[in-house]
Amino acid sequence: MSPRPGWRFLLATVSCAVVLIGNAVVPAPAAAPAAAPTRSVGTVHAPPSASSSASPSAPPSMPALRTRAVLDRPGEQRVRSLLTSHLRQAPPGAVVRGVVWTYSSTVMTQALLDAARRGVRVRVLVGGISCAEPTFRALAAGLPAKSWARCVRGSARSGDSFDGQESNLHQKSWTFSGVGGERWVSVVTTANATDVAGSDQYNDVLQLVGHRRLYQALGRVFEQQARDRPVLRPYRHVELGGGVAATFMPWTSPSQHDPVVERIRSLPGAGSTIRVAQSNWQDPRGLRIARALVDRRRAGADVAAVVSSPFGPRVGAVLREGGVRVESAWFGPHRYSHLKFLAVAYDGAHGRMERVWTGSENWWSPSRGHDELVVRVDGRSAYVTYAGFFDQLWREARAARLRSAR
After folding, report:
1. How many CB atoms lie within 10 A of CB 238?
2. Could you check whether the bond before residue 74 is cis, i.e. omega within 30 degrees of 0?
3. Where are the domains of the chain?
4. pTM
5. pLDDT per residue over 322-356, tens digit each?
6. Rounded distance, CA 49 to CA 65, Å?
7. Does domain 65-404 correspond to CATH entry 3.40.50.410?
């Protein structure tokens, strides 16, 4: 699900089957769109960058930048398990910052309270939809000094509305200054902190360990969000080194160029593979994004999408008529995709290029006014992991469609 104008409806959040970057990915069946061949690789090590170099304040030997992807299926609670494990391993004095739209998880509440009582400094921001949620109130009331939990009505860095539509804090991310022996752990996810999310949704986590510049960028924006007042230019795109970039929303102006459309238009046609998983894709903005994908398809790219609900019928018509293959991973109200990623492979100036974008942004107009986060990671291992999971989900969606047609 996703925020809607007048957002008083039940939302869900995390879930299921773990796929780690570095693990072998199940090959796609013949019916699935072709993806890059899978392989078994080790932990991803990003190219050297300022973000992974030593500094005077750093310990003598810093851990190499590592990227881990967790792709979940309903019922497995893998995202929640990762977060609660990190909270248990955070040492006294560590700082944990969490941002989610909806919050109702009793398990996360207990883990956060336990960490704070051990001396971890816990700071949590949630969207206005959860201000009256009893579980969130219990968290806010139970945290000791130096820790806090707050709700934000409207956008934390803009206002209550954008271009005539209601704004929300919709970002989903967690940062940990320390976990076990590791520093600068950043977790970007599609999952809210709800119990329903673990039982009903497909979600993902993209985790980066040791990337100080990403950790710091998330921290700076968090400080702005915690102040809960408009900033002059809330939209920010930052290249962070090591093949990592982050885009922070809301947009600064309704007239600015759509970053999703620009992202797609920047891709070459022939020889490109484009895989989309999007859980909320509709309205005029969704149509513009669909047309950008069709343009790439007509230029020779292999384009396929796994969608969920809501999915605008006009968006679907534009995609299918334009040659983009589409399957729906909305299997019902208790099993559906909440994924929001774009995985691409194409021939660049220096050889084959693979990239993954993932985060909280839905492809519809209201997202322009929401606090959203999208992170991009370059590299074959991330792409193979996401493309491989796409193929698995495509196979499930296609099989469900064929069964229903009998």
Report:
1. 15
2. no
3. 65-404
4. 0.86
5. 999 999 999 999 999 999 999 999 999 989 999 99
6. 10
7. no
